[in-house]
Amino acid sequence: MEENREKILIIIPAYNEEDSLGAVIESVRKHVPQAGIVVVNDGSTDSTAKVAEGAGVVVLTHLYNLGIGATMQTGYRYARVKGYDIAVQVDADGQHPADQIPRIIGPIIEGKADMVVGSRFLGTGDYRPSLARSTGMGIFSRVVSAIIKEKVTDTTSGFRASGGRCIRFFSHHYPDDYPEVEALVLLHKLGFSIMEVPVRMEDRTGGKSSITPIRSIYYMIKVLLAIFVDLLKKVDPVD
After folding, report:
1. CB neighbourhood size of 16 (10 A)
2. What was the pLDDT predicted at 137?
3. Per-residue confidence at 233, pLDDT binned at 50, 70, 90?
4. Percent helix, strand and coil across the chain, each to the nearest 5
5. In whole angstroms, what is the distance from residue 33 CA to residue 26 CA?
6. Strand, coil or helix: what is 168?
């Protein structure tokens, strides 16, 4: 990829990820050395904040655990205030390989999309979700694809990049709790362009997923309800 002048920020949302965070930061620096890095510490009770501070990156800390939606919105607000052109979400658990970041920022740099989602299901990896997750992912894919009239294969992927217009919008409006699916619907409703690209993802290298089978069912019902509410309510764009 040719050198570009866009200011790129890597947003790493982190909650109790002391075991994997240091390696994630190191990998980002290796593969995207031109990017800024901010760790949004969502009220961790372990040494997550100390690991991030020791790595010399910007650390923004919530006093309490607020969830991924509020955590990412904090990151987007920082990106907007600091004038970044592209913001990339990279999870702190090691599932999002930093060498895949150029794949998801490329279309934004080329002006092809406002948001790019890294998909585990477009041919470059061997990701095999559990039955509960697979069922939920399939339902979300069909619902969102029908809404935006374009096939979307990985609506729950948090490995995604946002251009300047999305950064401004998300700094003001970002879904709570489990926001990935809902965010796509909101962007489509306001006329933002969305693209998927194939990426490789890894198993988490530390910590424990908060998504249990019971929470998967709760997640699916809640997100589907939120989607249909979003379709009905008025959402004002941000200039």
Report:
1. 21
2. 79
3. confident
4. 40, 15, 45
5. 10
6. helix
Instruction: Name 53's Cβ contacts closer than 8 Å, sequence gap at least 6.
Output: 59
Judge whether 113 and 42 are in contact, CB under 8 Å.
no
Candidates 171, 156, 195; CA nearest to 72 is 171
How many residues comprise the chain? 239
Q: Are 36 and 82 in contact (CB under 8 A)?
A: yes
Tokens standing for residue 29: 């620096």
Phi first, then psi: give them for residue 38, nearest 5 degrees. -130, 130
Handedness of CA 128, 69, 150, 9 (dihedral sign): negative
Q: How many CB atoms lie within 10 A of CB 208?
A: 9
Q: What is the pTM of this model?
A: 0.89
Residues ≥6 apart with Cβ < 8 Å to 112: 193, 195
Q: Which residue has the tokens 């052109």?
A: 85
* Distance between CA atoms of residues 138 and 154, nearest Å: 9
